[in-house]
Amino acid sequence: MLDVSLIRREPDLVRRGLEAKGEVADIDWFLQLDKDYRKVLTELEQMRARQNALSPEIGRKKRAGEDASAELDEVAELKSKQKHLGERKDTLAHDLKKILMRLPNLAADDVPVGHTDAENEIVDTWGEPRTFEFDAKAHWDLGDDLGLLDSQRAAKLSGAGFSLMFGPLAQLERALWNYMLDLHTREHGFQEVAAPYLVLGSTLEGTGQLPKLEAEMYGCKDDDLWLIPTAEVPLTNIHRKEILAEADLPIRYTGFTPCFRREAGAAGADTRGLIRMHQFHKVELVVYAKPEDSDAELLRIRRNAETVLQNLGLPYRVLLLCTGDTSFAARKTFDLEVWAPGCERWLEVSSISTFGDFQARRAGLRFRREGGKKPEYLHTLNGSALAMPRVIVSILENYQREDGSIEVPDVLRPYMGWRTEIRAS
RNA sequence: GGAGAGAUGGCUGAGCGGCCGAAAGCGCCGCAUUGCUAAUGCGGUGACGGGGUCACUCCCGUCCUCGGGUUCAAAUCCCGAUCUCUCCGCCA
């Protein structure tokens, strides 16, 4: 949620920022509503004050056996006026909130202005794309030939967009997430969290998925429970409506969860293999930070996520997303894209974002500095580290051998009973 | 799923329809006292919104889980929801 006082003070700045984000918003209309709202509110409060002054007087007179009918009449009149004004105030407040909840975050100043992913900037690369002396296969063929990846039967169970993995391939995934969680908890200073996969609508409002991105989500609407699209949702909402102590920050959480996405806007895209799934597993990093620390934390998360790819020996590049490609709630985002030599594509395996105080305002995440001043909104950040399916894709394609077997990356071997390769049985 | 009990400030815990933003204690902050520490004394100590101000002080409103209702007046009475606890049943 944007700071209302910023919209009042710097409407042009906000207008330009929203435009860069690809958002059309009538800020003048918002400001007019806001002005009306405050006017009505002031009137209403003045009436309340008058009424509050009259009440004890009525009590006093009644107890003393005096006539209080003049005061009673005035109160009655005030109340009838308040009824109408109160309804107007509620309507205005509701309309303002509705607009505010649908306005995206503004991008940071150093984010390149652009409309599509073509305008994202490649800011770093790591590793050399592997060359093969044989025809490298795509993961769907590798998985199929191994008999360990079965899209047909997955579709039988759940329709398109789901995967079914067997034996060592399933084990590979389990090894991956265990490895990632161990790395982040032992070496990167994160606390592991096991969180719910179903959350209330209000929780999704806190992180910004609702109300605007409802079409992206699976929901059990009878219960107002929704399947999380990312662990960001439960982890960022853990401290909702809390005021933390300065000494508590930064808080670093990591969580492994399934993620559920309808991919409503991407129907028909990436239909082969494991690249775009309605359900996938992901290890997520979430940080609550003081505002002055959030830039450094963003780079820290990025480094933590890159470490996973480096340790797995997977070549990747780092993108700084342009304004138009930066998501609704984010202020600045880096994507990590890993190279998949079989399908010859860069695949996004991580998205690392800072949200500034945008989510904090929505979710009521605050902290108080030493010395007991006013509570301030803190900053939230998160990054995937990493999303499983595309990492599996990249491992299969990068570590494939001519005979169709797959070498197991060194760091995963302790997690797979020291297995060194995956081959058809 | 059935029966019952409860929800008050950072915490514990009082609270008669008006004198309650809320006693008391703890904690915390400041000051005093004291070789140091401890102890003691005095004072202070919530959030949100609006107005005002260069800024602080300040003024008004709202908030005793949440939402409705009764009343001139609600922490207090009524209704509903949520959550917590206890017992019974069922269950991975």
Largest sheet entry: 8 strands, mixed
Write the CATH fold name of the largest domain.
Answer: BirA Bifunctional Protein, domain 2
Strands side by side in the biggest sheet: 1-9-10-11-14-8-7-2
Radius of gyration over alpha carbons? 27 Å
What's the architecture of the largest domain, going by CATH?
2-Layer Sandwich
β-strand amount = 15-25%
Question: What would your notes on this structure say?
Answer:
With 425 residues, the protein is an alpha+beta fold. The protein folds into 2 domains: 77 residues, Orthogonal Bundle (Helix Hairpins), CATH 1.10.287; 306 residues, Bira Bifunctional Protein, Domain 2 (BirA Bifunctional Protein, domain 2, 2-Layer Sandwich). A hairpin with a 4-residue loop joins β4 and β5. It binds one RNA strand of 92 nucleotides through α3 and α4.
